[in-house]
Amino acid sequence: MQGPNHIESKRENAVTNAKSDERIALRYEEQYFIDSTQPVWNYSLFNDEDVRNFQHGTHYRLYEHFGAHHLEVLNRKGYYFSVWAPNATYVSVISPFNNWNTLSHALRVREDRSGIWEGFIPDFPPGVQYKYHINGFQGVALDKGDPFAQYCELRPGTASISTELKYQWEDQTWMSTRMAHNALSAPWNVYEVHLGSWMRPDKFNEELYNTYEQMRELLVPYVKDMGFTHVEFMPIMEHPFDGSWGYQGTGYFAPTSRFGTPEQFMELIDAFHQAGIGVVLDWVPSHFPYDAHGLFLFDGAHTYEYADMRKGYHPDWSSYVFNYRRGEVKSFLISSAHFWFRHYHVDGMRVDAVSSMLKLNYSRKEGEWEPNEYGGDGNMEAIGFIKDLNETVYRDFPDVQTIAEEATDWPKISKPTFEGGLGFGMKWMMGWMHDTLSYFKLDPINRGSRQDAFAFSMMYFYDENFMLPLSHDEVVHGKSPMIYKMPGDDWQKSANLRLLYSYMYTHPGAKLLFMGDEFGATKEWDYKSELPWELLGFESHRGIKDCVKALSHLYQSEPALYELQFQPGGFEWVDLGHREESVISYRRKGNKPEDDMVIILNMTPVVRMDWKVVTYGKTQWKEVFNSDIRSFWGTGDTFNPSIPVHVTPYDSKLYELTVHLPPLGAIVLK
Length: 670
Fold this sequence. Notes:
Structural class: alpha/beta
């Protein structure tokens, strides 16, 4: 053993190296002093407060401590590794660096019984695969990927990759002004994208993808031109199986390597921001798969998931449910969300399958679930987790939004926690989607009898901050593409679809449209192939696309369509009385009365000339949008170059407008 002077010299050097980060704690014990002859140095990024917060579920930046971190210690570069494996008896780092030797680089477990294994491996290089070899519960031997890995091997490989995130952001203008872009009083027109199938370099080769760099050149200008304000990526986090669409994830801190490196994904987000477009990520804290290298039975025991399979197993997706009761798991998940907001500058998170998290009896029959301590069906730990998640996100990133995919009648999903809500910024309006699609599938002759169901959305609209979704779920599994949900011949199908989109864009609330819907894709979405872009060679599909583009720009440019989109003062019915004719009209309002707009929907293929609408406001109105114009593949025969306005004989404050209504058409007046 070397003398005490040698040890003291190394101690002084270590203190000097640690000054730059007060959180770094170098622990020394006589038997474990740092020495270049030892393969793993006894080094820690945790202090006692970090450990306590981790265990209590209140550490939201665990990515600064767990995982693989490129550091320089005592003038030696290498990687610090740390992993939580509370049921393990032995953990080592295996890699090509050590020929996958399970004995050469063993981590040391902390003495505080936290279950954290850690150590610094000098000379470990960037860009190298690694896993944790774990001797776990009851002696089971496991090779696991790093739960905190920031880069992963391309599937079918399952290793993590040592990396160091380095990117020079150029989105300062966006970041300094995004509070206005992402506010609830701003237009939210979201284009939902599956990166692997939006467009491919070879549509006949399902193994070949456009890279993040290529998407920067292709997708960003398309989204900008179409007038979308935000893009939402279906889960981009690393996942082993393409067919899960990303919803069975194993990398909660790593963008998938299918399309490139983490820095290249940052560059794509940066490009969207420079184009004035926000980025939303689909995030799945509800369940995870049973892949051998993932979180399931991480150290041979139920570490991340509930041990009781009445809570821990999800029958719908054959996957496993996070144990929200466990503080360490709660810290892990909130740290994941925090990581993407902080390091990737994302503007929002759409949280998947919230209903399954809230309900103990979700997709479970009687006897397959156990009530909570109050006798109810709510998962109290999940509810607490969701509230803490949203409070943390809005505290640290007040200029972003969290969005819940939640399909039950659970109250106050998008209300603040201090009002008894769950704290999300918005909620998907699944009821609107189902009622609207059911209505538009009807033969127009029968629509009058279903008008109450069509108008029902405004009866409960102000209960939440709703986003209107026409998502990927509506164009898969035999549900048919949007264009074929519509009745009638080819012209009527196109006209109906343009009418549906006109209704969506003028209805209160944020909007979401899945890729391909904007030009009337004629086949269900298939993750193995690209969108049918060849359809744009047909005038009818170009017309649908141009209609969506016009509606997108109308929505952005007209304050009445977004300023009060979540407030009762932003909407009122004008006429619901013409059931037999199936003509519906309503008014959208902004902060200024002069911005008001009147929308009239003609739900049948009958042209209606000299239609009377009574409303208050100005004596002059003009048509600013018509879904039946020729460039949209409409008839172009029915329009309103001028609109006669007369004071009603019974009320001098009301005006009678005379307009011509196109067949299966919408007009917008201002």
